[in-house]
Design a protein that fits this description.
mainly beta
Amino acid sequence: AQYVPGVNNNVTLRSHVHRYARYSNIWGYTDSQGREYALLGTNTGLSIVNITNPIMPVEVDFIPGPVAPGTVWREIKTYSHYAYVVTEQTASSGGLQIIDLAPLPDSAVLVNTYLWPGVTAANARAHTVTVDDQGYLYIQGGTATLGGGTNQGGIRILSLADPVNPLPVSVFAPRYVHDSWVRNNILFASNINNGGRVDIVNITNRSLPRLIHGLIYPLGFSHNSSTTQDGNHLFTTDEQFGLTVKVWDIHVLWDNDTTNNDQISLVAQYIGDPQQIAHNVHIKRNYAYLSHYVEGVKVLDIANPSDPVEVGYYDTYPQTGTGFNGDWGVYPYFPSGNFVVSDIQTGLYVLRFNSVRAGGLRGIVRSAQTGDSLSGVTLRFIEANKTVRTETNGLYVLRTNQGMHTVVVSKSGYVSDTLRINIPAGATIVRNITLNPNLVELELSRTAFDMTLRRDTTAATNLVIRNIGPGGPLVYTIDDINGQSMDKQHGSSVVRGDPSKLKFNIPPIHRAARSLHADQEEPTGLLLGDTIIVDPIGDLLFGTGADIRRVLATRTPNAVTFDFQFVNNVNMDSTIILWSLDTDFHRNTGAHPGGFGFNDPMQNIGSEYDVLIDLPGLFSGLPRSFYVWLGSNNQPSAPPLFTGSVTAAGNTVSMTITLSTIGNDDGNMAVAGFAGHFHPTIGLTSLDYVPNVGYGTVGRNPFGDLSWLSLSRKAGTLGPGQADTVRVTFDTHGLDSGRVYTGVLSITSNDPDELEVLIPVTLRTLPVTSVRDENGVPSSFSLEQNYPNPFNPTTEIRYQTSEVSHVTLKVYDLLGREVATLVNEELTPGSYEVTFEAKNLASGVYLYRLHAGSFSQTKKLTLMR
């Protein structure tokens, strides 16, 4: 399966279809020939998509439906070869759409728009529809029981003896019903408007439904339900933030003893992200499939219903945010094992779950120095996208999917550790962990600088460097690098596959491959071009020795050389590098390359290539070679497009490829991939990802100082609790107006967790205005409003001076008591910026006052925690 941390785990994307503006619920249909179809609700009707070939879905018909502004609602169920569609649309063509699916795969036919008793085409609407296996249809919500019960949105029961012309049987309408589930002769009605309430109804006689029990629980918003295959447990969802999926033991409903039907117990709860909403749950054998809006689809192992365990997920909505976005519905019942999901914004997803089972991990985290148990330790399970913390006794427990897990263990004051742990199916294993004290710990006041200045001016701000470790000196250096800033977040959309399990079947290289011959031009000398990637040191996911530090590029008129620089000398007997190359990357509009073997054509990312650097010659018998294939969404199966030799010396591996091979790129390139040690039988024994996403313009020296930026100091040693303030000065003299300049501050230290930290720096230049004299000097003193305001806990204050003067900038509370001195020094004319940190102050309004010569100005700022 493709693997993208935080995006999918144990669920593989087979295909994706996006043709309409918005989408609602989804269902499925399998015809007599075994062909499978997704029935997808859209804003204008029902899309019928043939997914028999799951990687090439084809829409075979579209049945228009009622349309009204502001809602996309459509709910679908099937019986025999008919589909039944209801909607909340308030239009003149409302009612129950009945669609004959028998003509598929050629087409489908709308054979009736049925109006139930008490409604007209102008007011016939329903929220959901249910069909049982005995040939009865249930519509609920909307006006399903208009004129037929206490609530117009109750349940109406219809017979499908004639599937085209349903026959009214009865209504059950003491309350509004959002959705229902039928198991044998019992109906479970989710009464969403009554908080946590599920009416359990005896429908042995469909013409006379009878309430058995009202399952009532606090803090609920009963949305939908589904029973396990044996009927002994009921899963319910509550469509609100922070509410859990609940599991109820309902075996008493089937024991022929009517006196204990109220003895239903809550036996388990599941919650994904508490800030998100669980929507619908559907159960197939020992798995529950849960559509979870912004979090996508979740798969739970429910072999033991009292212990539901998340074992897979696929996030169809990778954007941040909350609310009613993303995955609306899921249908898991296809015989093929594929399942489908509807995403409100992006349509149909055909997926496949890998059928892994649940396992468990527990243990105690202790200090390696004292042996004491450690509370509050964070354990982040990368693949499962789960985080747990140790209790007061150092204990941690996680039930998750079987298989190999990358676990990052961290606690302030200790050196983080990364483990690879294989969790078996059906068992909980014990793994105790020790952490070494981190006597030095780097803390920085800023994560980025973004300064906007007029041309021919200067401004300054501060970077505070602290040692918050418990003991030992922090030794640091700081330098400015001329190059693009990088997003160094692991676990993004370009980190795909489970590299620890990769097996490569590299095709013969002697056919249809062009090689770089001696008469072709290569760059000469060790010319270092633009920094495509700068990687934190010491961030190996597992194993040792393959840690990438930088990837560089050098271009001549005919070729490009890539230099992979590692922290340590390269092992020639085992090191391989697998990466993908996007040669016309645009940092604002271009999609990221996918990584080796995962360059999805649907991303439309332009020229894309897969590259293998094979130092030991494990795949071809030719040591120190590299191979280039056209990018695809699979591991290469054709002969390579290009082959060449690799130069390796010390910690650097270099390869050169002709520009004609990669389409005479425009100089803007992005790369994604990983390096590791490879054993011919075991596979990868170490792994280090190249971060997402490295990019750059060839020809810019990454090690040159930024001409427009200066630092008041470039090194220091800090004892515990000590801090240095580095003055960062921006100078636009000689720069062009209306331009954006970028760079990176590189802070290296002896903090084992942060040996190198990169801070992106952006300078934007504006034209000269009349507030400055002909030499670009401010014509007056001024104090600007702080930004952001309100703030927590830091804010920026800008000011300018028009003459050499002693300047003070102080902060006071409303009683006039000084709480901070930000500036107290003689300054030359110019524009300045200072950071105010209020970590130890209470929320409230404060005053900040600038004194410079005879000038004085005061403004208010608000701290809001």
